[in-house]
C-alpha cells in the first residue's frame, strides 16, 4: 500500500543529530529548582521553585510549553466527535472537555492551547459562551480564552464543547492521496502529536502534566485506528461512512492522542497483539513481528509489572512517517523501515512497548524533563532485548552505539550548549528544535549509572516501585530524585548510604557535555573496530566475507568508526567500500545512510544522486535531516532541488525541520 520504494532495514537508536540552526546559547534563568509534589498547583510550584534552594536554570514554571491555565482547571475526560474529511483534508466536529476546577471560584476563565485550528463556537455547560482566540506567539501558538463568569467550586466539573475544524496549516496531520499509497485504492491520513502538535487538532491543555481519559467517536469512509481500545459492537454504518468508537480508560496526556485512517488491514501477531497496515504489506509485517511480540511483552512485564493497557498493537505507516516509532497507546505507530524481512530491526517495537510504562503510565511533566520518558525507555528497551538475546554483551553493544550517537550530538551542538543537558530549559523553545539523541542517551546513562551504583538486584526492586508510585501521574527530575532517595532510605539499604550520598544530582541534571563514561563490555564491538583499523591501510583489499556473518548493527558500528577517521577515505576507497559490502544497493536505510555519509565526506560525486533518491524514499527524520545537511554541504543545489521535489512527500514536521536546516524557512 505505501509505495515509494518501501525500504527494508534500519536498526535502531541513533536519532537525528542536532540542527545547526538551533540557538547556540540562551540567557540563563536564575530560577531555583526544588521538588514540588505533583498535586501542587503550578502557581504554588512556581513559588516553590523560585524560592527553592538549588540553582538550576530551568524555566520557573512547571511547563513552559503550554499557555493553558492548568493550575486552575484540569481536563479529566475528553470526547472527540470528529469526522475525517478526505476531500477537504481536515478533521471537523466537536470536542468536549470536562474540566475540574482546582480552586474555589478563583478562576473566571479557562485558557486552552491551540495552533492553527478554526474554532467555530464554544459552549460552556451546554450554553453559548464568551470566548476569544488570542494572537499567536511562537512557539506555543494561540491561546483560546473561555469565560466562566461564575467560576466553579473546587472539584466541580464544567463541560466545554468546542465546534472546530483543522486547517491546512495543521502540523499534526499528514494527508496522502491514493496515488501516494502503494495499492492506490484509497487516501490515507495519520496524526503525530508529540511534542506540542495536539493543539493543532483541537484546543486542549496541551501539556504532559495533564492526563485525561478519552472517548473517540470518529467517522470516516475508511478503517480508523486510534489510541484507544476499539469498541467493535458500536461501529455504525452511516451511508458511505462508518462511525468508529474507541475508549481510553487509562488517563493519558494530549500528546498521546492519535488517529489514522485509510485502507488498513489487520492480522494477529501475538496473544494480545495485531499488526495493521496496507493490504499489500500485511503478510510481510505479520511475519516480521509475530515471533517477538509476546516475548517482548513478557520480558517487559517481568522487569516492571503487568501491562495495563489491554491490547498492544502496531500500525505500520507509509514511508513518510517522520519517526521510527511513536508510542501511541494501544497502537504504536511505526515506520515501514522496520519491516526488513530479516527481523533485524524490530527493536524499535521493544522501545515503543517499553513506553507503555515509561512515558505513557509515568510521564515527564514537561519537555524539560523528557529524559524521564526517553532515557528510561532506552534503559528498559536494552533490558528487554538483552533478556531475549543473551545478556550483558548485547546490552553493552547497544549502549556503545548509543554512546557514539551521544558523542556525535554533543560534538555537533558544542559541549557547552544548553541542549546537551539532561534537563533542558524550554523557555521560548519549541521542543522539536531541542529534540536530539541527548535525552535518550544521557538519560539512559544516568539510569544505568544508578543501576550499577546500587547493584542490579536492588535496582530491580526500585523499578516496579517507581513505576507503581507514579502510574497515571507526571513528574519532574526532582520528584524522580526524591523517589529514588526515599526508596533507598529503607533500613535494608543502609549499607548503600555513602554510595547514594555521593550522587551529584545537580551536576547530573544540569551539566552540559558528556556524562562520565562507563566501562563497556566491547566483545561484540571489537571485531567492528578491527575491520575499521584495516581500512586505515591504503592497500587493504576488502571482500564481502569481511562482514557476511555480521548483524546490521555490527556493520553500522564499523561504518561509524570509518566515518570518524581523521582523514576521509579516498573516492576510490569509498566506492570500493560501497561495492564490497553491498551498501549501495542495500535495502537497509540505516546502512545506506551511513554509507552515504562516508561517500559525501570523501566527495564522491557519483554517490550524490543515490543520496537524493534515498531522500525521496524515506521521510524518517533520523535519516532525512542528517542526509540533507550532508548533501547541503557538498552540493547545495541538489539538496534544494531534492527538497522541493519531495516537499509534499514529507510530513509537515519533517518539512519544517528541513526548511530550517537548509536555511530556506519562510
Ligand atoms: N516518542 C518517540 C518519538 C518522538 C519523540 C516523537 C519526540 C516526537 C517527539 C519514540 O518513542 C522514539 O523514541 N522513537 C525512536 C525509536 C528509537 C529510539 C528506537 C525513533 O523514532 O527513532
Ligand atoms: Zn521513545
From TrEMBL:
<dbReference type="InterPro" id="IPR049980">
    <property type="entry name" value="LTA4H_cat"/>
</dbReference>
<dbReference type="InterPro" id="IPR045357">
    <property type="entry name" value="Aminopeptidase_N-like_N"/>
</dbReference>
<keyword id="KW-0963">Cytoplasm</keyword>
<dbReference type="Pfam" id="PF09127">
    <property type="entry name" value="Leuk-A4-hydro_C"/>
</dbReference>
<dbReference type="GO" id="GO:0008270">
    <property type="term" value="F:zinc ion binding"/>
</dbReference>
<dbReference type="GO" id="GO:0008237">
    <property type="term" value="F:metallopeptidase activity"/>
</dbReference>
<dbReference type="Pfam" id="PF17900">
    <property type="entry name" value="Peptidase_M1_N"/>
</dbReference>
<dbReference type="GO" id="GO:0005829">
    <property type="term" value="C:cytosol"/>
</dbReference>
<feature type="binding site">
    <location>
        <begin position="322"/>
        <end position="327"/>
    </location>
    <ligand>
        <name>a peptide</name>
    </ligand>
</feature>
<dbReference type="InterPro" id="IPR042097">
    <property type="entry name" value="Aminopeptidase_N-like_N_sf"/>
</dbReference>
<dbReference type="GO" id="GO:0005634">
    <property type="term" value="C:nucleus"/>
</dbReference>
<keyword id="KW-0862">Zinc</keyword>
<protein>
    <recommendedName>
        <fullName>Leukotriene A(4) hydrolase</fullName>
        <ecNumber>3.3.2.10</ecNumber>
        <ecNumber>3.4.11.-</ecNumber>
    </recommendedName>
</protein>
<feature type="binding site">
    <location>
        <begin position="192"/>
        <end position="194"/>
    </location>
    <ligand>
        <name>a peptide</name>
    </ligand>
</feature>
<feature type="binding site">
    <location>
        <begin position="620"/>
        <end position="622"/>
    </location>
    <ligand>
        <name>a peptide</name>
    </ligand>
</feature>
<dbReference type="GO" id="GO:0004177">
    <property type="term" value="F:aminopeptidase activity"/>
</dbReference>
<feature type="active site" description="Proton acceptor">
    <location>
        <position position="352"/>
    </location>
</feature>
<dbReference type="GO" id="GO:0006508">
    <property type="term" value="P:proteolysis"/>
</dbReference>
<feature type="active site" description="Proton donor">
    <location>
        <position position="440"/>
    </location>
</feature>
<keyword id="KW-0482">Metalloprotease</keyword>
<dbReference type="InterPro" id="IPR016024">
    <property type="entry name" value="ARM-type_fold"/>
</dbReference>
<feature type="binding site">
    <location>
        <position position="374"/>
    </location>
    <ligand>
        <name>Zn(2+)</name>
    </ligand>
</feature>
<keyword id="KW-0479">Metal-binding</keyword>
<dbReference type="InterPro" id="IPR012777">
    <property type="entry name" value="LTA4H"/>
</dbReference>
<feature type="binding site">
    <location>
        <position position="355"/>
    </location>
    <ligand>
        <name>Zn(2+)</name>
    </ligand>
</feature>
<dbReference type="InterPro" id="IPR015211">
    <property type="entry name" value="Peptidase_M1_C"/>
</dbReference>
<feature type="binding site">
    <location>
        <position position="351"/>
    </location>
    <ligand>
        <name>Zn(2+)</name>
    </ligand>
</feature>
<dbReference type="Pfam" id="PF01433">
    <property type="entry name" value="Peptidase_M1"/>
</dbReference>
<dbReference type="InterPro" id="IPR014782">
    <property type="entry name" value="Peptidase_M1_dom"/>
</dbReference>
<keyword id="KW-0539">Nucleus</keyword>
<feature type="domain" description="Peptidase M1 leukotriene A4 hydrolase/aminopeptidase C-terminal">
    <location>
        <begin position="523"/>
        <end position="662"/>
    </location>
</feature>
<dbReference type="InterPro" id="IPR027268">
    <property type="entry name" value="Peptidase_M4/M1_CTD_sf"/>
</dbReference>
<comment type="similarity">
    <text>Belongs to the peptidase M1 family.</text>
</comment>
<keyword id="KW-0645">Protease</keyword>
<dbReference type="InterPro" id="IPR038502">
    <property type="entry name" value="M1_LTA-4_hydro/amino_C_sf"/>
</dbReference>
<dbReference type="InterPro" id="IPR034015">
    <property type="entry name" value="M1_LTA4H"/>
</dbReference>
<keyword id="KW-0378">Hydrolase</keyword>
<dbReference type="InterPro" id="IPR001930">
    <property type="entry name" value="Peptidase_M1"/>
</dbReference>
<dbReference type="GO" id="GO:0004301">
    <property type="term" value="F:epoxide hydrolase activity"/>
</dbReference>
Amino acid at each position: 500500500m505505501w509505495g515509494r520504494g518501501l525500504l527494508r532495514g534500519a536498526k535502531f537508536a541513533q536519532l537525528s543529530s542536532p540542527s545547526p540552526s538551533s540557538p547556540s546559547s540562551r540567557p540563563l534563568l536564575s530560577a531555583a529548582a526544588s521538588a514540588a509534589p505533583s498535586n501542587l498547583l503550578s502557581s504554588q510550584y512556581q513559588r516553590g521553585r523560585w524560592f527553592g534552594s538549588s540553582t538550576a536554570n530551568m524555566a520557573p514554571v512547571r511547563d513552559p510549553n503550554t499557555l493553558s491555565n492548568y493550575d486552575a482547571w484540569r481536563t479529566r475526560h475528553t470526547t472527540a466527535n470528529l469526522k475525517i474529511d478526505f476531500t477537504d483534508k481536515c478533521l471537523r466536529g466537536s470536542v468536549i472537555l470536562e474540566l475540574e476546577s482546582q480552586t474555589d471560584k478563583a478562576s473566571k476563565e479557562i485558557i486552552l492551547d491551540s495552533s492553527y485550528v478554526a474554532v467555530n463556537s464554544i459552549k460552556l455547560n451546554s450554553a453559548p459562551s464568551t470566548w476569544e482566540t488570542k494572537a499567536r506567539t511562537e512557539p506555543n501558538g494561540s491561546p483560546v480564552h473561555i469565560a466562566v463568569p461564575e467560576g466553579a467550586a473546587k472539584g466541580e466539573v464544567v463541560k466545554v464543547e468546542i465546534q472546530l475544524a483543522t486547517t491546512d496549516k495543521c502540523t499534526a496531520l499528514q494527508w496522502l492521496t491514493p496515488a501516494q499509497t502503494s495499492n492506490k485504492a484509497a487516501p490515507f491520513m495519520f496524526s503525530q502529536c508529540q511534542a506540542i502538535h495536539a493543539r493543532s487538532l483541537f484546543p486542549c491543555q496541551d501539556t504532559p502534566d495533564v492526563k485525561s481519559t478519552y472517548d473517540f467517536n470518529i467517522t470516516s469512509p475508511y478503517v480508523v485506528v486510534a489510541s484507544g481500545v476499539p469498541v467493535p459492537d458500536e461501529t455504525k454504518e452511516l451511508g458511505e461512512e462508518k462511525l468508529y468508537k474507541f475508549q481510553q480508560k487509562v488517563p493519558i496526556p494530549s500528546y498521546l492522542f492519535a488517529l489514522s485512517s485509510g485502507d488498513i488491514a489487520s492480522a494477529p501477531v501475538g496473544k494480545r497483539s495485531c499488526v495493521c497496515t496496507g493490504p499489500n504489506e500485511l503478510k510481510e509485517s505479520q511475519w516480521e513481528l509475530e515471533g517477538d511480540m509476546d516475548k517482548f511483552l513478557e520480558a517487559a512485564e517481568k522487569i516492571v509489572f503487568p501491562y495495563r493497557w489491554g491490547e498492544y498493537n502496531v500500525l505500520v505507516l507509509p514511508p513518510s512517517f517522520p519517526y521510527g516509532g511513536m508510542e501511541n497507546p494501544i497502537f504504536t505507530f511505526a515506520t515501514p523501515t522496520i519491516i526488513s524481512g530479516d527481523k533485524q530491526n524490530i527493536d524499535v517495537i521493544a522501545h515503543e512497548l517499553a513506553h507503555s510504562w515509561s512515558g505513557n503510565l509515568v510521564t515527564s511533566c514537561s519537555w524539560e524533563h523528557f529524559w524521564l520518558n526517553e532515557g528510561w525507555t532506552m534503559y528498559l528497551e536494552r533490558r528487554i532485548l538483552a533478556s531475549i538475546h543473551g545478556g550483558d554483551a548485547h546490552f553493552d553493544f547497544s549502549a556503545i552505539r548509543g554512546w557514539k550517537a551521544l558523542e556525535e550530538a554533543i560534538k555537533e551542538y558544542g559541549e557547552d550548549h544548553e541542549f546537551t543537558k539532561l534537563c533542558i530549559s524550554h523557555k521560548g523553545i519549541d521542543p522539536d528544535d531541542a529534540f536530539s539523541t541527548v535525552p535518550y542517551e544521557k538519560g539512559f546513562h544516568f539510569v544505568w549509572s544508578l543501576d550499577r551504583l546500587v547493584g542490579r538486584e536492588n535496582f530491580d526492586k526500585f523499578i516496579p516501585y517507581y513505576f507503581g508510585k507514579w502510574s497515571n501521574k507526571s513528574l519532574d527530575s526532582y520528584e524522580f530524585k526524591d523517589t529514588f532517595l526515599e526508596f533507598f532510605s529503607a533500613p535494608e539499604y543502609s549499607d548503600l548510604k555513602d554510595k547514594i550520598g555521593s550522587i551529584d544530582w545537580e551536576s547530573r541534571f544540569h551539566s552540559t557535555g558528556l556524562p562520565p563514561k562507563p566501562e563497556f563490555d566491547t566483545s561484540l564491538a571489537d571485531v567492528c573496530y578491527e575491520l575499521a583499523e584495516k581500512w586505515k591501510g591504503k592497500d587493504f583489499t576488502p571482500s564481502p566475507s569481511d562482514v557476511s556473518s555480521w548483524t546490521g548493527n555490527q556493520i553500522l558500528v564499523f561504518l561509524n568508526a570509518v566515518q570518524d577517521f581523521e582523514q576521509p577515505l579516498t573516492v576510490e576507497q569509498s566506492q570500493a567500500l560501497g561495492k564490497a559490502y553491498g551498501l549501495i544497493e542495500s535495502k537497509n536505510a540505516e546502512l545506506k545512510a551511513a554509507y552515504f555519509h562516508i561517500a559525501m565526506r570523501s566527495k564522491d560525486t557519483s554517490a550524490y544522486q543515490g543520496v537524493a533518491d534515498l531522500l525521496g524514499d524515506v521521510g524518517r527524520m533520523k535519516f532525512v535531516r542528517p542526509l540533507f545537511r550532508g548533501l547541503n554541504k557538498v552540493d547545495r543545489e541538489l539538496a534544494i532541488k531534492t527538497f522541493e521535489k519531495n516537499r509534499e512527500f514529507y510530513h509537515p514536521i519533517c518539512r519544517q525541520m528541513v526548511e530550517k536546516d537548509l536555511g530556506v524557512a519562510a
